[in-house]
């Protein structure tokens, strides 16, 4: 994956933190040779005075200025994936504390397990200057998602992959307009059988 840090002070991987948890990313046992031992755990922390900062509070309920997708056909993988891609990047500093609040709005289009992980994610690092600038202008984002075709496997009755080029443009309620950014988002969707609604169980994003 290419550049994963964006100007909103969160990483592209941050959008995917839930996916990484669900796939076991970060397990130090993954890929070890049989019989290989893990190093012993340290007996003391390097800095005993250090304590992790508390997580940032979640935003407040509400609909972002740019709205959220409606009339989504949940039996169409492309329709569901597009709604997720757009919603993930539709921020509103009036109701959102961080970009994680926008991702939580996708929960209805995610599998149960993935939705729980996304909903529970609480960033501890404050957004960077770009988010602060947008907030100073009481800002929000407008988002477009264009279908991009990749060498993904063909759809099956229970599995589909979709890729979108997502363009994010910050705007202020005072007339300000910030520079646009374009990201590529891949979404993996599943369902238990034909006729059931599609749900995403994994996402990743890159510049």
Question: In words, what does this structure look like?
Answer:
The protein is α+β, with helices and mostly antiparallel strands and 207 residues long. It has one domain (12-21, 69-206): Nuclear Transport Factor 2, Chain: A. It is 22% helix and 20% strand. It has helices at residues 12-15, 17-22, 77-88, 99-104, 112-120, 129-136; strands spanning 139-148, 159-172, 181-190, 199-206. Strands 1-2-3-4 form a 4-stranded antiparallel sheet. The radius of gyration is 19 Å and the shape is globular.
The CATH architecture: Roll
The largest β sheet comes out as: 4 strands, antiparallel
Beta-strand share of residues: 15-25%
Mean pLDDT: 81
- H/E element string? HHHHHHEEEE
Tally of DSSP β-strands: 4
Percent in helix: 10-25%
The CATH superfamily name is: VirB8 protein
List the total number of helices. Answer: 6
Radius of gyration from the alpha-carbon trace, in angstroms: 19 Å
Q: List low-pLDDT spans.
A: 1-39
Query: What number of structural domains do the residues give?
Result: 1
Region (Disordered): 28-71
Organism: Streptomyces pyxinicus
Protein name: Lipoprotein
Q: Strands, helices and their partners?
A:
Layout: H1 12-15, H2 17-22, H3 77-88, H4 99-104, H5 112-120, H6 129-136, E1 139-148, E2 159-172, E3 181-190, E4 199-206
Antiparallel strand pairs: 1-2, 2-3, 3-4
